[in-house]
Every structure is written in C-alpha cells, then in structure tokens.
Amino acid sequence: MKSLIPALFTVGALMVLFGAAVYITGWEVAPYVYTIGATMVALAQINSPSKSSRANVKRLRRQQIFGALLLVLTGAFMFFTHGNEWIVCLTVAAILELYTAIRIPQEEAKE
Length: 111
Fold this sequence. Notes:
Elements: H1 4-23, H2 30-47, H3 55-80, H4 85-109
C-alpha cells in the first residue's frame, strides 16, 4: 500500500487540476473528474504515515487532512450550487495544502 500512495496522490492531483480547469467550460463530466481526483488525494493523505510523533506535526497533519476534505467538499459545490462557491472552497483548501506541504518537512527536519 505504501508504494501506491504517491501514485494515488499524483493521479488524483492531475485529475483535480484538469477537472477544475475544464469546469469553467461547462463540460458535464468535469465535476466527476474533479471529485474523483479530490477523493484520491484525500485518501492518499489520510493513509500516508507520519514520520514524527511531535505535537506540531500532528497538528499540521490534521490541517492537511482538513484541506483534503475541503477539496472533496469543493466537488460537492460543483455539483449542487452551480455558482462560484466552489472557487472559495478550493482556494481555502489550496492554501491549507500549500502551507502544510511546506511546514511538515520543516518540522520533521527538526528531529
């Protein structure tokens, strides 16, 4: 399973990027592509083991998982609201994911 996590994350991230980019064109399949990709990213992050037992890293991992769940919620917004609410949710998720992607390696390097 450990060797599948990076592949799951990569494929999911590409699907998220593609689904979000083509959603604007009105393609009917775009929300499905996005939501499946977001679910793959969330599963990869939830199942990736943490190398540290420090409290800061645990807090950052919770934030990272929350960001991944917001990615999935963005897909729900794409399906049900048909407005621009999904953009706000995606922006918050992207900020959380970027922040934790930078901070977790920094905190793990302190050990």
